[in-house]
C-alpha cells in the first residue's frame, strides 16, 4: 500500500497501539478523569509523541505547523484536555475533536483584539477518576467492567467502538469467585458452555452453539496441528479472559465460527508488587499461588514478573487418582526509550490427572446420577508437560508508523498411561465394555507475525490501519496402542481390572502443518458518531501427514479469503448501535473412511446489537442478535469412530445479553442470558431441523457482590449467584436429551487490612447432580458437587 506525499504530510502522530503496545487508547470518558504526565521541555513534535503515549489520545497535525516549535513540558496528574492545553501553551496552536479517538491541531483563530477562540474539545481519560487506576487494554481492570480490548482488533480499542460482541472477565472476578478452572471463568459469558475435556486432558467449549476446539493466548491460537488444547489452563498468570463472538479469522487466523476465547496474561509492572494466595477446600483440594513483579534496575527500563502455582486435588470421582499440577511463568520487559519495547515470556506446566471419559448413557437416555461414579481404574492416568516461549518487539519508527514483531514457540507432550475408553453397553443396558489405550501426543508449534500500524487522515476521516503477515508451522506426533479390559457395571462399578494387558499398536503418525496469512484492517472514524471496521485476510494452509502405521502419506492444501465489515453508530457517548458481517475458515485434520481428506469448515455470521452504558463509566450492557452458519461440519463416522463424515450445514440464531459493572459504590455485577435456536439445515445423514449437540436453548448466569466501604463492617464483602441451563441434545440424531439444571453459589470475604484478606466460597450450594458438558452418550461430564473453598490472600 502506498500513500501520496500530500497524504503523508497529514499522517497522525498517534499509532494504533496493540495488545503489547507501550500506551493504550482508552474509551472517551468524563473530562474530570486524570492521568499522570511527565513530559520534559523539548521540541513540540517529540513532546506530542510522549503525550500520545501517556494519554492514549491520538493527535493529528500538519508537519509545518509544529516544525521549529518547542514545548515547556508538563508534569503531574491532569485531565487529558488540561495536559494538551498546557503542552501547546505559547505555541499558537489549539486542537479540535475529529471524532473517534483523536484530536487535530490547528492554528488559534483570532477573534477581536488579542482574544483567542478555542474549538470544541473532546478528551480521553482513564474513566476511573483521579483516585482510580488507569485501565489499559491488556492490564488489570478496576472492578468488574472492562472498557478496552486488544482481542477484537489487535489494536487497543474501546469495546463500544467494536461492531461485534465481546465480553471480558477480569482477574477481579476470577478472584472474587475463587475460580480454579477456565470453565469457572467462562460461565460469566453468554452463549458459552463446556463441551468436554477429551478424557480429562483439556477443556473445549461451545461458543454460540459451535465447538471451539482451541483458544488463544495473547492473540495466538493454540497449535493448528492438534484438535484441542495441549493441557488444562492454569489461572495463576491470567489477567483477563476475553471472548470475541462469531467468526474471527481476520484477527486470529484459522478459527471456528462460534468465536474465539483469548487469554491475556499478566505483564510486569513499573512498581514493585507481590500477591499470593493459599486455598484449601472440599475433596482434598489445595492450591498456592505467588506472583512478584517490579523493576530490575534503577532507571526502570527493565521490569519483570515471576509467577508460580502448585495444586493438588483429590477430586469428586470415586476411585480416581489425585490430580497434581505445577506451573511457573516469567515475563521480562525492556523499554530502553519511549519508542521501543521488547517482551520476553516463558511458562511451563507439568500436570498429572486421572484419565476420565465421564459417565455413560444408554439408548433411552438413562445414566448414573452420581457425580462420583467413575468408570475407569485407579491406574488410568493422563500426564502433560508444556513449555511456551514468547517474544514481542515493537518500535515507533516515525510518529505515524509503528512496526512490531511477535512470535511464540510451544513444545508440549501428553501421555495417556492406560487410559480407559468406554466402548458400549451390553443388552442389559448396564454392563459397559471397556478398552485400555496408551497414547503419546507431542505437538510442537512456532508462530510469527510481522505488522505495521499506521494512523492517517484522508480529509476529515481518521484511519487506523494494520497490515501484516503471519506464518505458523506445527508438528504433531501421535502414537497409540490398545487392548480390551474387563467390563464394568455403570450403576454399581467394581474395580480391579488387573493385570493391565499388553496393548497392540493401532495408530502412529507424524503430521506437519504450514500456514501463511496476509491481512489488512482499517478502523475508520467517520466524524463524531460513525465508525467503520473493514478487514481482509488471505490464508493458505498445507499439511503433510506421514501415517507410519498404515504406511501412507496424506497431503492437504486449502486456501481461503475471509473478511469482515462492521458499522457503529453512536448518537451519544453512552450508546453504540452496531451491525457486522464476518467469515471464518479452518482446515480439518480428519478423513473420510475412504481416505479422502476432509474439506475445510467455513462459517459466516450476521450480527447486530447495542452497547449501552447504563451508568456512564460504571455499568454496561451488550445486547446482540445474530445468525451464524457453518458448512462442512465433521462428526464421527457411525461405522468407524476413527474416521469422520461431513454433515453438511448447521445454523444458529440467537439473542444474548451481558451486563457488567458497578450498580452502586461497592455493589458489582456480572450477568448474562442467551437464547440459541440451533438446527441442522442441510445434511445427508441427520434429519433437517435437528438441534445441535450439547447446546441449551436457554442459559445464563448471575453473579453479584457487595463490599462494605465504611462503618464497623468496613472490609466485609458478600456475594452470590445462580447458573441456569435448559436441556441439551445428546447427539445430532437427537436420540434423547440431557436435563437442564440450576446451581447456586455464594461467597463471604473480609479484608483484614490493605494487605490481607480471607474468604470462603461455596459452589453448588444445594449439592445438585447435573451434567455440565455434553459431548456424546459416552462422554457426559458431571458438574462439581457442593464444594467449599477457603482462601487467604496477600497483596503488597
TrEMBL record:
It is found in: Cell outer membrane. Residues 57-108 form the Secretin/TonB short N-terminal domain. Gene3D superfamilies: 3.55.50.30, TonB-dependent receptor, beta-barrel domain, TonB-dependent receptor, plug domain. The keyword Transport applies. InterPro entries: Beta-barrel_TonB, Beta-barrel_TonB_sf, Plug_dom, Plug_dom_sf, Secretin/TonB_short_N, TonB-dep_rcpt-like, TonB_sidphr_rcpt. Residues 1-29 form the signal peptide. Coiled coil: none annotated. Keywords: Cell outer membrane, Ion transport, Iron, Iron transport, Membrane, Receptor, Signal, TonB box, Transmembrane, Transmembrane beta strand, Transport. Its main location: membrane. SUPFAM superfamilies: Porins (SSF56935). GO terms for cellular component: cell outer membrane. GO terms for molecular function: siderophore uptake transmembrane transporter activity; signaling receptor activity. GO terms for biological process: siderophore transport. Transmembrane segments: none annotated. The keyword Transcription regulation does not apply. Belongs to the TonB-dependent receptor family. This is TonB-dependent receptor. It comes from Sphingomonas crocodyli.
